[in-house]
Here is the input.
Amino acid sequence: MKGKISLSVVISAFNEGEKIKECLKSLSFADEIIFVDNNSTDKTSEIAQKYTSKIFIRPNNPMLNINKNYGFIKASGDWILSLDADERVTPELKEEIKIITNKQDFAQVFGSEAQAQRDDNGAVNGYWIPRKNIIFGKWIKHTGWYPDYQLRLFKKGKGRFPEAHVHEMIDVVGETGRLKNNIIHYNYETIFQFMQKLIYIYASNEANQLLKNGYKFSWQDAIRFPFKEFLSRFFAREGYKDGFHGLMLSILMAFYHFAIFSLIWERLKFIQTGDERLLQETEREFKKSYKELLFWSSLEKIKTIKKPIKRLAYRILRKFQ
Here is the structure.
């Protein structure tokens, strides 16, 4: 490759033969593609060879971010864009990234207002990028899945994953900014895929992390964990606005948190509580959860009421929250 490398794209993938082609096709603007193949058994590596010669074979480590950090080390660009196999760079995002990494004239591309923005962000070492999650065939605009900012673009040597948690973000030294245009994420396509990834990979890691951080076991959390997550997804993050998709995803995420608690219980050798009031306490927890459900449901309904009444209703609801 001739000339200075401004942008390296780093991808780490395992058995992504069905998705990787479209991901790589969206990266025609990159100066360099670093592809870390996690010892795939399908045609992932073979497909990647058509787009880059810089392919590194690594063991398929359960801590996924170890191999991503390895790719960052191998990158030659001044800037690094970290991408997953099921993600795509939109044409609009491509132009935005080119401006940052190649220091093109903002005014020429976006006008004088954007030029001033470039000047203000001159010392920024990383950028958060909004991500559109396509789940079960639909763009999920609520339920906690949008804008879903991900820190993916950063100066070489200024960012890396901590390698402590599968859901962690890249740590960047220095200031960070935000881009306007989206990464497209073709997320879960089937219920089996959802269960396989969240329950068998993420839940286990989450359970370990909670215990490591000093979580104190309480059997009531078997009820509290999933119910709190459902309320958060469906009401607080307006999952109901995503229709039936939002309802199903809120329930599935509640089950995910129930799985986290179950794995904690397993790791504690199926500890017995010895609580003689189990029936009464279970009833109390469900009554409490039901009251919270009614509160959140009423709160969302109030948003359609005229303003003077709305303010009064808010005050009344807060009193009984």
Remarks:
- The chain has two domains: 7-186, 191-320.
- The chain has eleven helices and 13 strands.
